[in-house]
Amino acid sequence: MKRELLIERLSKSGDGVAQVEGRAVFIAGALSGERVLAEVDESARAMRGELLEVLAPSPARRVPSCPVADRCGGCDWMHLHEDTQLTEKEEIVLSTLEHMGDVDRGSFELLPFVRSPEVLGYRRRATLHPVSGALGFHGKKSHDRVVVTRCPALTPPVADFPARLAAHFGANTLKELEELRLLECDGRVALSLHFRAQIRPRHRELVELAVRDGMIDGAILQPGDGKGASEIIGDPVLEEEGVLHRPDGFAQANAAVNRRLVSQAVELLHLQGGERVLELYSGNGNFTFRVAPSVAQVMAVESSALSVALAQKAALKRGVGNVRFMQGDSEKIAAGLVRESERFDRLLVDPPRTGAPGVGAWASGLLVKRVVYVACDPVSLARDARELIEKGYRPLALQLFDLFPQTHHVEAVMAFSR
Ligand SMILES: C[S@@+](CC[C@H](N)C(=O)[O-])C[C@H]1O[C@@H](n2cnc3c(N)ncnc32)[C@H](O)[C@@H]1O
Q1: Does any ligand 1 atom lie closer than 6 A to the CB of residue 250?
Q2: Contact (Cβ atoms closer than 8 angstroms) between residue 247 and residue 192
Q3: 395, 381, 151, 413: which is closest to 257 by C-alpha?
Q4: Which residues of the chain have a pLDDT value below 70?
Q5: For a pocket test of ligand 1, which of 244, 266, 298, 303 has the largest count of ligand atoms closer than 8 A to its C-beta?
Q6: pLDDT value at residue 42
Q7: Which is it for strands 411-417 and 394-401: parallel, antiparallel or unpaired?
Q8: Cα 113 from chain centroid (whole Å)
Q9: Per-residue pLDDT, 140
Q10: pLDDT given at position 255
Q11: How far is CA 101 from the centre of its chain?
Q12: For residue 112, how far is its CA from the centre of ligand 1 (angstroms)?
């Protein structure tokens, strides 16, 4: 049914929220304060509306600079001015902490939002999908794919890689690809090619040619399930600030803001020297190598075997001897450490979107004095903050980082002490 609606706020997933007879309706593309015309599906439990027309636009609305912004699923807030992106992100995190975590916004210090020095050209990694003989991203509607030639969010060395890679590999090889991951660090580029079936000689030849021509430094070729072993061509291990990365593993997307994220998280740990630190979800050692020089020992727990291997290799290269890397499930390992009556002075967690349920019990069981929680999902942060508070921790400070300009995504670091 067509409805004229007033958008009250933006939701945690970046959509405009209006009310229809006391029920919330979510409208992608609408902005706070706008009056819009929308087609609303009132039968669904979570009501969604399709934006038909903006009747009274927000002063913060603008024409997106990317020609595919209205269809591409990548930059969902490109039509919103950057300053307002930040105020909306801040409100999303603070209100989620209040409503879902019972954490009052006045109960901790809110440190200044860390902006991204580049609001475009900041993304060093991307996952591309074959689409009609070209490469592209997932569309706004989840099953659509949108052809991309140049992506302005990607860092300058790889911004035109969607078109360059599509031209290099050609339609026949693209058809045989499930997805292609791209990573750029300090001007070096690596790919991870995930094929639907087995790796063919033509695939190897094309990757070898891309390495020889200097388009990329290396690649990992991954066959479909049960279709053989993965192969490496060239050197797909990239280094930035002494941390090693591969395109088939995790890397923070925005290198410049990541540097600030790491230094602020370390500062919030309030290290005096001599501490024993437990770091959960440690990845390739992004935080680990900044914490290690200031403390007695770090125990770094990570589930990905690739990430642990890269972190161990970097530790050897850097001569870091006070980190114990453990591959496994953080929840099981933390619970095991509590059972064994281990003690840690600090706990640093940087979980995936699902958060770290159990973090309150681990922190209190290990007699941790200070917890620093790095979050990419405000809902998980709110739930886990509540748990920490229930276990006697006090929220000290919150800082937000604009790791993903032009999107509704926001990174948060929150410190707690007991
Ligand atoms: C948000 S990333 C952070 C990685 C790292 N701290 C960084 O800054 O690059 C989350 C990490 O948690 C790891 N992970 C996911 N589930 C896990 C689990 N149950 N136990 C341990 N690690 C896990 C992922 O492999 C990923 O490396």
Answers
A1: yes
A2: yes
A3: 413
A4: 142
A5: 303
A6: 85
A7: antiparallel
A8: 17
A9: 87
A10: 98
A11: 22
A12: 26
What count of other Cβ atoms lies within 10 Å of the Cβ of residue 155? 24
Report whether residue 258 contacts ligand 1, using a CB cutoff of 6 Å. Answer: no
Cβ–Cβ under 8 Å, residues 169 and 156: no
One-letter amino acid at 279 equals E
385 phi-psi bin (left φ>0, alpha ψ -120 to 50, beta other): alpha
Instruction: Point out the ligand 1 atom lying closest to the alpha carbon of residue 251.
Output: 9
Nearest CA to ligand 1 atom 26: 283
Q: Do the bridges between strand 323-327 and strand 297-302 make them parallel or antiparallel, or are there none, so unpaired? A: parallel
DSSP annotation of 223 reads: P
Mind listing the domains of the chain with CATH numbers?
Answer: 2-61 (2.40.50.140), 87-117+254-417 (3.40.50.150), 125-245 (2.40.50.1070)
Q: Which pLDDT score is estimated for 144?
A: 87
Q: Report the pLDDT value the prediction gives residue 43, as an integer from 0 to 100.
A: 83
- Calculate how far, in angstroms, residue 231's C-alpha sits from the geometric centre of ligand 1: 24
303 C-beta closer than 6 A to ligand 1 = yes
Compute, in angstroms, the gap from residue 322 CA to the centroid of ligand 1: 20
Distance in angstroms (rounded) separating the CA atoms of residues 351 and 374: 7
Question: For ligand 1, what atom is nearest to the CA of residue 351?
Answer: 10
Cα-to-centroid distance, 284 and ligand 1 (Å): 9
- Catalytic, 376? Answer yes
pLDDT in tens, 147-175: 999 999 999 999 999 999 999 999 999 99
